[in-house]
Amino acid sequence: MCGIAGIAARDWVNQSLYDTLIVLQHRGQDAAGIATSDNGRLHWRRSNGMVRDVFHAGHMLALRGTVGIGHVRYPTAGGAGSSEAQPFYVNSPYGIALAHNGNLVNAEELRAGLVQSDRRHLNTESDSEILLNVFAHELQATGACGVDEEDIFRAVAGVHRRCRGGYAAVALVFGFGLVAFRDPHGIRPLALGSREGQGGTEYMVASESVALSAVGFDFIRDVEPGEVVCVREGGELTARQCAREPSRSPCIFEYVYLARPDSVLDGISVYRARLGMGERLAEKILREAPDHGIDVVIPIPETSRTAALPLSARLGVEYREGFVKNRYVGRTFIMPGQLERERSVRQKLNAIASEFEGRNVLLVDDSIVRGTTSRQIIDMARDAGARKVYFASGAPPVRYPNVYGIDMPTSRELIAFNRTEEQIRAEIGADRLFYQDIDDLMRAVAGGQSLVDDFDTSCFTGDYVTGGVTEAFLRRQDELRNDAEKDRRASDLRHAPADLELEAWR
After folding, report:
1. What's the sign of the alpha-carbon dihedral 447, 451, 454, 460?
2. Cα dihedral sign, 171-176-178-179
3. Is the bond preceding residue 184 a cis peptide, omega within 30 degrees?
4. DSSP per-residue codes, 223-273
């Protein structure tokens, strides 16, 4: 669920890209990077850490150029080292830098073909580097001495033919300009905007619409599934559909948790989608437990607040803020390993005892993934004096791995995998547990609009819209991306020589 951005402007884009990555920081806290083009020369900075820690004044001054791309990363594949930070770069053909949000489900097949047939070298375990090299090979196969829009369109059409999975990408093609494209199913989001600058129109693409407005760009539309958008360094924009059978099937978990509530993705307001989730969840509670005995509804900050408000109103129960959040601790869901998540929960939240003491409390969260955080928060509510603790999830049970760029990689680490809802309730220690139904979730998100053909709901249903997700693939993902492996990598990084992260930046 990384965040990406690209800007083609009339003046330097370094500050606008930095400000954009700050807005997108919720999509990844592991690493950040910016690449810019200045008269055909690459300027590049990427490293581990939050945006504010990666870029200092000297780095910003060195990022010269009127075209650039940026990336914030959290690890779904590969390690936590600086070699995995994006954007990636290859010098042939022309010189290309690329940043990517998503995951490829045929990465191993592509890797073998790139090395054995295309004679390309891969330096990391990241499928983003695979995507870059597929694009580079397809662009080189056009045989052109100089690159133009037709070459780009043919190259991305080749990417769509070869790559299977969820991906949104931004690229710098040196001597040409900015390129952005989205997978044929539109699983990962990408928005297009413009603003009037000195000398003409400037363009921007970003993972969420809110990032456009934050730096003064007006939202135009979403990049279509399978579409390619090209912006020459002079400012001219062209776009073309390059997939054979595109369909709009965005990841529904973007609306449940990942995206900011003030974003609009594929024509759907994230805020209104979450309001709908709360309303429909309340209806289910009233059906299943009309005499629920709930005294107070308390959201688990911050994503669930929007859903908790209409839920409490529909139940006729007062809404209270029962937890105070430390805003200087990152989102526990996207921390690299289980040890870090567990350690951060009590650092992140503190209960207000007066809102719990002697009351039957309904805690509302956006979802339950591993269950560790839910269990600890329920314990905190009991420690604060709650008589009974009920728990409501705005999403259905997460039973299957997400393979398109969200960190739900391994079934055995999902609390709902091979468990009934009653077993999950007992495992997290709630007195009662309410889950959203999948049909209600889809209706809440769609909200009656018709832009979306379908949703990717694979983490709830096990149905993968791209196909090609085999048991062997899932076993391989489990080996590479389970929490124990992430903790091992994090430990290796902590004990590495102090200058390891600075290898490319001296």
Report:
1. negative
2. negative
3. no
4. PPTTEEEEEETTS-EEEEE--SS-----BTHIIIIIS-TT-EETTEEHHHH
Percent of the chain scoring above 90 in pLDDT: 78
Dist CA 68 CA 4 (whole Å):
11
Catalytic residue among 2, 163, 251, 459: 2
Rounded CA-CA distance 203/216 in Å is 11
Residue 102: phi and psi, rounded to 5, are 140, -165
Measured distance CA(276)–CA(107) in Å, rounded: 37
Band of the pLDDT at 225, cuts 50, 70, 90?
A: very high
Q: What tokens does 472 get?
A: 């062997």
What is the number of residues in the chain? Answer: 506
For residue 148, the tally of other CB atoms under 10 A from its CB is 13
Residue 177: phi and psi, rounded to 5, are 155, -140
SS3 309: helix
Q: What is the pLDDT of residues 354-379, one digit of tens each?
A: 999 999 999 999 999 999 999 999 99
Catalytic (active site) residue 2:
yes
Q: How far is CA 256 from CA 229, 303, 417, 447, in A?
A: 28, 8, 19, 14
* Other CB atoms within 10 A of residue 312 CB: 22
For 150-202, write each residue's pLDDT tens digit.
999 999 999 999 999 999 999 999 999 999 999 999 999 999 999 998 889 99
Give the model confidence (pLDDT) of 190-214 as tens digits: 999 999 988 899 999 999 999 999 9
What the block records as the tokens of 202 is 């400037």
Sole residue written with tokens 């979450």? 274
Shortest CA distance to 377 belongs to which of 419, 429, 327?
Answer: 429
Q: What is the pLDDT of residues 415-441, one digit of tens each?
A: 999 999 999 999 999 999 999 999 999
User: Is pLDDT at 459 greater than 80 in this prediction?
Assistant: yes
CA 367 vs CA 233, 258, 265, 349: distances in Å: 43, 11, 20, 17
Asked whether the bond before 93 is cis by omega within 30 degrees of 0, the reply is yes
Report the C-alpha gap between 431 and 442 in whole angstroms: 27
| Integer angstrom CA distances of residue 284 from 140, 287, 336, 436 | 56, 5, 34, 8
